[in-house]
Amino acid sequence: xxxxxxxxxxxxxxxxxxxxxxxxxxxxxxxxxxxxxxxxxxxxxxxxxxxxxxxxxxxxxxxxxxxxxxxxxxxxxxxxxxxxxxxxxxxxxxxxxxxxxxxxxxxxxxxxxxxxxxxxxxxxxxxxxxxxxxxxxxxxxxxxxxxxxxxxxxxxxxxxxxxxxxxxxxxxxxxxxxxxxxx
Length: 183
Ligand SMILES: [Zn+2]
Prior knowledge:
Layout: H1 14-19, H2 21-29, H3 47-53, E1 55-58, E2 62-66, E3 76-80, H4 92-113, E4 117-121, E5 138-143, H5 151-154, H6 157-182
Zinc ion binds near residues 38 and 83.
């Protein structure tokens, strides 16, 4: 009897592998054992703690962090502080804070990194591509002409890590400046 054809793994998306191999490795390997920790949820953090978790800004309603597994340099995520998955559960204050932060983040990235454009959006549900489906978040991805070529595919994780630290130091003061004004 011929062997039963194996169903391909859902995560084995060739486009994902080609486009961002470091991200693919993360998605496959980083499934936590036991109780998963949400990357967006925290109570209080020291500056070192924020740096470690790449959190650029946080107030009572929303936060901004760098994506540890970016699709491009300067890939930010904006999320409500509350662990909610549904848009309808956001309060007016949370929606206003998220909106302000997205506008501020785009303005800062534009000044610091001079991208030619942006992708901004949210993936609602795993089927839509959400890596963390239980906590709403918006991606802000700066785009440059030619950034869809093979450069991202051959970039090593180590190189991306260096970019992350530099990127954090570059952007953190620009969010520090609005911390009092927005909180
Ligand atoms: Zn959460």
